[in-house]
Amino acid sequence: MKRIVVACGSGIATSGLVANKINNLLEERGMVGKARADSIDIKSIDLEIGTADIFVSITPTFDLSNVRIPTFSGIPFLTGIGEEEIMDQIVGLL
């Protein structure tokens, strides 16, 4: 199963909301059992990135230069603007 890691500052509220939204969208697209999104705090990224296939960041100031997997902004999942396009790209990588 592919793993999507969603990170924010605390790993609770915002990343949890976005991870839940991504999981719901995966379900709508028939991807249950193929991928899942998990929320983490940004400080845990070094521990979690090795088991992730895709990284979604809610923290705009986080330096993504060391992340070697596909990365996406999580902001569209909060605003709804561009959400479908980002989700299409994520599903295309799964």
Automatic annotation (TrEMBL):
GO terms for molecular function: protein-N(PI)-phosphohistidine-sugar phosphotransferase activity. It holds the Pfam family PTS_IIB. Residues 2-94 form the PTS EIIB type-2 domain. GO terms for biological process: phosphoenolpyruvate-dependent sugar phosphotransferase system. It comes from Hungatella hathewayi. Gene3D superfamilies: 3.40.50.2300. Transmembrane segments: none annotated. Keywords: Transferase. The lineage of its organism: Bacteria, Bacillati, Bacillota, Clostridia, Lachnospirales. This is PTS galactitol transporter subunit IIB. The keyword Transferase applies. InterPro entries: PTS_EIIB-like_sf (IPR036095), PTS_EIIB_2 (IPR013011), PTS_EIIB_2/3 (IPR003501).
